[in-house]
Amino acid sequence: xxxxxxxxxxxxxxxxxxxxxxxxxxxxxxxxxxxxxxxxxxxxxxxxxxxxxxxxxxxxxxxxxxxxxxxxxxxxxxxxxxxxxxxxxxxxxxxxxxxxxxxxxxxxxxxxxxxxxxxxxxxxxxxxxxxxxxxxxxxxxxxxxxxxxxxxxxxxxxxxxxxxxxxxxxxxxxxxxxxxxxxxxxxxxxxxxxxxxxxxxxxxxxxxxxxxxxxxxxxxxxxxxxxxxxxxxxxxxxxxxxxxxxxxxxxxxxxxxxxxxxxxxxxxxxxxxxxxxxxxxxxxxxxxxxxxxxxxxxxxxxxxxxxxxxxxxxxxxxxxxxxxxxxxxxxxxxxxxxxxxxxxxxxxxxxxxxxxxxxxxxxxxxxxxxxxxxxxxxxxxxxxxx
Length: 386
Fold this sequence. Notes:
Blueprint: H1 2-14, E1 35-37, E2 40-47, H2 52-67, E3 74-81, E4 126-133, H3 141-154, E5 159-163, H4 171-175, E6 183-184, E7 188-189, E8 192-194, E9 197-201, H5 216-228, E10 235-241, H6 248-256, E11 259-266, H7 270-285, E12 290-295, E13 300-301, E14 308-309, H8 316-324, E15 328-331, H9 336-343, H10 348-351, H11 356-372
Parallel strand pairs: 2-3, 4-10, 4-11, 5-9, 5-10, 11-12, 12-15
Antiparallel strand pairs: 1-2, 6-7, 8-9, 13-14
Helix pairs in contact: 3-11, 5-6
């Protein structure tokens, strides 16, 4: 069925005249792999950066015609520009975003605007955007992002959560959300909500076991749409759960999104810290402020004896933060309860607010918020385990 739909889409594209007067866009290899899931078609057109504005009306017409095909409920098409040799990665060509809803250009606190990021268009209705990243997968980044967002919401902020991990979206499972988001005007997505958070993820648009076999340009197109074509407003803070690693998608996201700062998640072990350093270096290179490091799975307290075990070592992230001059945000213990609640879609900050883990996440959120608002957080009490 999908193969037949793809052929229909390609036939439709072949019939459209290119605005530059050349051959059709299919024969010129300008069309990415077409992904179809649940009647929704996703693909991108690769055009010269200088021709992006010229191709925008064609992009809109393609979306209209493809969405009208039998078996297609909607189409998401983006323009991407290939990197020129030795040059910087240009932003995907999209209609320019409007300035933030408050309508003035100054910075709200030292951490509010990315240093050197004046050319990055903001997202209307969103005050600040922060990234939660890790140098490698499996360190608890997504769990941290979810509970950090809930911690910020507990502090009285209007918070959204964007799952930017296209290949392995975790937010639907972690938030206990199922179903498809509604659309407004046939294109703008309405966020799915749970525990007071507005959320959006590619996991809502495709089945959980559907693999996303996309190349870099298509991933960036999807991320751009999930960020800029969703009814986020009004939000004080949008937390972005970044893909793990430091590849092209992560770098381009950091370059194109006006990030107020980044939180790096690592475990104490040396191997994870090596990769965490790469993430820190990437954000510094693109002049995104570093809000700090979280040491996840920091220690384990045996439930029967109360004895503490440093299974993955201890203090590595804290020492690394001190070495690099980056704030250390806190230590999250290795707890069975975090794993069980996460798998069940019941984040600990929302469902077990008095647990040690929930208190830790809220303390991390307070430190992040203090930096975003430009003042130091009060020192948290130290919990000693004898």
